[in-house]
Amino acid sequence: MNERAHTYPTAWHAVADHLRHLGTTAVFGLPGDDMDLLAALEQTDTRFVICRDQRNAVFMATGYALASGRPGVCAVGKGPALTNTLTGVLEARSAAAPVVLIAGGTPLERLGTGAFQELDQLSAVRPLVKWAVRVDRADRLPAALDQAVAVAVNGTPGPVYVEIPEDLANEQVTRTAPWRPAAAQRLTPDPDVLADTAARIAAARRPLLLVGGGARHRNADRSLEAFAELLGAGLFTTASGRGTVAEDHPLFCGVSGLYTVAPVDRLWQETDLVIALGSRLEETATFGWPDADQLPVIQVVSGEDGLVTARPGIGVLGDVARTVHAWTGLLAGHTPDAAWTDRVSEVRQALAARADERALEADRTAKDSGGVPVSRVLAALGRAVPEDRVLVQENGLQDMWSYFHPHWTCGARGGSVVPSEQTPLGFGAAAALGVALAEPGRPVVSVAGDGAFNLFRSELPTLADAGAGVLYVVLDNGGYGWLQTNLDRVSGSGSRFAFTADRPTGNEGLAAAYGLKYWRADNPGDLDRVLSAAWQHCASGTAAAVEVGVRLADSPPGMAGPAGDFPLREDE
């Protein structure tokens, strides 16, 4: 037997040791009736965040994974506990987050007997994960845990599922070799593909650089901004790619697709090449682009499952950082088109001027109609919270403002975590706790609509118990604003149905019950004072919520109104 073999008293002690090996500082979940994992963690430094809802537990693990770049771990019971996680698993898969979901299971000898909470859990979860396994033999558990992490972090990252039946809880597990390295392998693209794509990039006169979520944690040396400068390329991110590049860079033009507004949107009609780094070119990222057959794209992704072949161009399989470093060497001495660089600067300046005009217009409307302009909320938040803050977002009607540059800007030290293309309601509010535990000491702010925050309210005791100083900014428009405006579009204002109403939220009393601080702001003049006080409180290590009364009609920039899944542009 290998001299580094180790025998654990139970399967869950083996899991606990594997978590130590991964460097996992927090596990999120809600155990079933068996407390074996908690017992195994008693003598370790690993924190177990006991959640009130299994869906939120996976959201928190996803936030932890996206913020840290390490696997996020969620542990739950069996049967309905597993099915409650499925929305979170769907989000983790869409967000390409390396999440390890561990669940209990019915013992092998009782399968098919109608056992308590029996469910074919593998069939339920397998369509949503990269890999799923049920471990029915104790000697196979170490290999299963190693493989789960390898699958989660490599290629296109994503969630994996490990089921440990109850009868393994009391069985000894022997690990016969050291745990395998848990870090993702970063692959260098094929040299011929690098040469071909470098030649195409050199020939382009009006390039745009699109940075996606697959570039997260791959730009510590600021090589992406340097590459944009080498090409004279306009620099965009997808929503999930925010926080990767410095948004105060002179070539940065905002978030692509759904969140690109005039005059910057013209760049997408004028470009002759898009270089997409770590983006799967989802619908929201390409919203408003020219027709698919008109715009060539060089797309760099880590796994072939992320390639998009419906557009002309070429795919590059490899690590974003290694690809950009290789291109930079091959393109040394490249001279960008000065006219294109000037064009990028021109529209960027015009965007800033238009944003100022919108802020003034919102102020005038607020004086006449009440409510606090969301653009002013974001500006005051930027002044109140240190620059290394991580903004964790939702994707509702008013909180969508935070996706629009320059109304919100992630500087060189800032960070961002957003929901994926699935946009499950309440993701950002729950994920913010995972982000805070992944990056202790870093400011974390959640901006959420009141509808999303209300879904999170059951986790206020979890938030209080965790001792994480997350600042929640809740934009109160009376409920589900996006749905209400869609209803108004088809039924007018006289509909007998309603998704919003002017009613007390009750958040003040709930916050106080769990020792959390609460403020309310209904006047723009109160924002700086309230948000500054709230952040000073959060900096001491306790969470706080600031509710802000906003108008339903305070639509994000460039949006004439919702039209189903996507908004109508002002010029449509």
Short description:
With 572 residues, the chain is of the alpha/beta class.
Helix and strand arrangement:
Elements: E1 6-8, H1 11-22, E2 26-30, H2 36-41, E3 47-50, H3 54-68, E4 72-76, H4 80-84, H5 86-94, E5 99-105, H6 121-125, E6 131-134, H7 141-153, E7 160-165, E8 173-175, H8 191-203, E9 207-211, H9 223-231, E10 234-237, E11 252-255, H10 266-270, E12 273-277, H11 283-286, E13 297-301, E14 313-317, H12 320-330, H13 338-369, H14 374-384, E15 390-393, E16 415-417, H15 427-438, E17 444-449, H16 450-456, H17 460-466, E18 471-476, H18 481-491, H19 507-513, E19 517-521, H20 527-539, E20 544-549, E21 559-563, E22 566-569
Parallel strand pairs: 2-3, 2-4, 4-5, 5-7, 6-7, 9-10, 9-12, 10-11, 12-13, 13-14, 15-16, 15-17, 17-18, 18-20, 19-20
Antiparallel strand pairs: 1-8, 21-22
Description:
With 572 residues, the chain is an alpha/beta fold. It folds into 3 domains: 6-175, Thiamin diphosphate (ThDP)-binding fold, Pyr/PP domains (Rossmann fold, 3-Layer(aba) Sandwich), CATH 3.40.50; 191-345, Rossmann fold, CATH 3.40.50; 370-569, 3-Layer(aba) Sandwich (Rossmann fold). Helix content is 36%, strand content 18%. The chain is built from 20 helices and 22 strands. The strands form 5 sheets. It has a 6-stranded parallel β-sheet with strand order 3-2-4-5-7-6, sandwiched between helices. Strands 11-10-9-12-13-14 form a 6-stranded parallel β-sheet. Strand 6, helix 7 (141-153) and strand 7 (160-165) form a beta-alpha-beta unit. The longest helix is centred in the middle third of the chain and has 32 residues, at 338-369.
